[in-house]
Amino acid sequence: MTEEMLKKVDAFIENHPKGHFLQSRDWAPVKPDWKQEIIVSTDRDGEIKGVMTVLIRKLPIFGKSVMYAARGPVCDVHDKATIKELLQKAKILAQRYNCYVLKIDPDILVSDTEFEDILKECGCKITRNIENYGGLQPRFVFRLNVENKTEEELLQSFHSKTRYNIRLSARKGVTVKIGTTPEDVKVFHDLITITGQRDGFIVRTKEYYQSVLDNMGENAKLFMAMHEDKCIAATIAICYGDKCWYLYGASANEHRNLMPNYQLQWSMIKWALERKCRIYDFRGVPGNLSEDNPMIGLYKFKVGFMGDYTEFIGMVEDIYDKKTYFLAEKAMVTFKNVRHNLFVKLKGDKR
User: Is the pLDDT score of 136 beyond 90?
Assistant: First the structure.
């Protein structure tokens, strides 16, 4: 693909209503173990109708590869011909890389039955039994419409308790600065390590978070909540196209009564306003909203900002090799369970 065409692809993804930073070329270097390929559909005049950026990784077993299009495709999702063309080109690409499956988790509402019917007609499998964070990307998110809103309009739309906590945080002396140095990233990594131990999730390396900030450039920011010259919480957000995403969050075990996370969310929302975004995406929330779900607190925190509780269509799979698919998916489930149990054990040993 020529450099001129790549620039057209970049512009198409960034300016399209279904554009997503995970479909951008900038994201590929963050995932160095994956190879990026770009699938393009054009009309008779050579104008781009659709793009599906895929990442390909060889499995350590079975001698096969997996193909993943995070939040793809970028196109009119009711244009059957374009979707069929993108999937057909992905199938041809899969033969070159010996892929057994294409996985897609589209940024499409579960209520969009027209899109679902197109996928089924193309022979794709759709899985929805993902309640919390079982998928590659969260299936349930909170999204706040910030288009043409003022700060005051948004603030007044929040739940009264959320407004109170934002103001309380400021009164208690919490301020937010933008992290710009490797030392700031180290502080973030130290905090997210504490958060992972507390909340039970696997933490990536410091280099990974640095890579996100470096490769996304001006589209990514590290927000740091400061109190008495000490960082007590921090987040990473990405603005791309007409959307802004809260990507990663971390907080210390101390000073949680100062409500720094409310101040951080408000700062990221204000950045989305500055960037003229249409949507601010709080990212994952649980699909199971029962009180005994350990993640229900996350839901209650985010719901106070009065966004829309959004359910996406689920994991879409175009399976090329059924036998390998069965074996590989079973092995993946086993690996995740072993890793989770080991993490829980190590967490318990440290107490």
Answer: no
